[in-house]
Amino acid sequence: MEDFFKHIYSNGTLLIMWGAVLFNFILPIPKNAHPIALWHKFAELLAEKVNNNTNHSQSLISGTLAWALMCLPALAVLIALQPLVWESHLFELALLILALDWRNNDKLAHQLISALAKNDKETAKATLQPFVNRDTATLSQLGLGKASTETLIMGYGRNVIGVLFWYAFLGGIGAFFYRLVAELARAWSPSRQEFVPFGSPAIAVLATLDFIPLRIFAALISIGSRFIKTWQLIRMQSASWPLPGPGWLLIAVGGKLELSLGGPAMYNKRKSVRAKVGGRIAPAAIHLSQVQKLLAWRSLAWVVLQSITLGIIYQGI
Question: What is the pTM of this model?
């Protein structure tokens, strides 16, 4: 046992992960003050300059080049900085702290639950708007419940699970780069007509990075009550969702709690037809609370399982 802890301490990977999670809960970085917000704004400004082609193929090429212009230099800078820092563990910790966003997901959940419980639609819409691309002004109480639930699910899936997964494989640089890719895909999401097909390359890269971690997390969520029913829903409904990772995760949570997710959504006053997934219960404040608890506890289970796995690996090394 003593040798086991020596391996953990000498490597530092687990200490960095635990430290980042602890820091995220004690002193979370506000969304508006986060460097990711600046990255998102720069992506919007770049799109205004280069996303002006009416030709489909030209727009696709522009989107690919714009993605490369944003992401490849950022990755090069991160890699170049690594050997220059005086303490590599602190560099890894700083990047993971910036990439991880667990506490803000919890805060968003509590704000939405409070607003929906009071039937305060305007507050719920205003709270949700910065986190989504869809129009919230016209959302009904049912629409707010679905949009809030989906946003919370994907927030945990990408800002927590995806970040921790890629940290385990590629360290702090991998975790932070994944977060940059995810934010770029949100900024240029083809769910809005003006980013079709400009944003398709960004979505394709994110879908590739999401494929494994979100499916594993969906499997972790499915364990326990309604396991068989949830897996049946995943098998039947996953093909109807365009992105495999998010599709599995949404269906897993919806099936587990019997919640109805998906369906039509408005983006810039244009109706987007999406498949309905999950169960049949319309999400309300009480269901959003259940979703938050489910995701938070399964995320904690992920941290424990990842810690055990990395501990075994490094003990072997």
Answer: 0.94
